[in-house]
Amino acid sequence: MRRRLVTSLVSASCCALGLAPAGPPLPARLADTGGGSQLITAEAPDAGSTTGTLTWWDLRHGRWTAAGTAPARFGSGGLVEGGEREQGTNTTPAGLYDLPFGFGIEAAPAGTRVKYRPVKESSWWCQDNDSRAYNRWTDPLPADCRASESEHLVSYRTQYAHALVIGFNYRHPVRGRGAGIFLHVNGKATTAGCVSVPPDAMAEILRWTDPSRHPHIAIGTAGGATALVRH
Q: Dihedrals φ, ψ of 6, to 5°?
């Protein structure tokens, strides 16, 4: 009887102080995490936000544990459901995506295990809807891909010092939906639709990412139509 009373008093005190027991970690509340044991979550407060939080998680012994966290930036147009995104809107696509490979102008951080492509003067990301190389790394730029509709990767020395490709619209590209969505180093402000983090966090994420554990990234908001956790 005494133990039950003490427990009740402690619970009541915690609630009064705003110290309610923490719920399950974010990945445990998602409908899908990609089936692997590594997950990155990029969460903004709402669809109009351009900043939020990026956390990388490990699943060990059936429990998700945060391995690191960093402030994140999103597209200047906010976030939109990936299947409804339109190219050129500067929106970050909400959804769950794989991470096909890494790349960078600088050498891969020591310990990097993902496939990592060095950016050269001849490296481009084709964003030309009329090209057969749409939403693909190309080296060099193919004749059917207009430079004016593509990214010359070496031109973004800060942002693409280190990066991971986000598999949005990548496996089976839909023309007009968008191309060149990456997790990369912060530039001066918001992104054109990518997710960005400080340089030390990007280097740590590359060292942490293990292809054998099938890592994915889940992008979304705290609530609304683009929420990471949907009821």
A: -65, -45
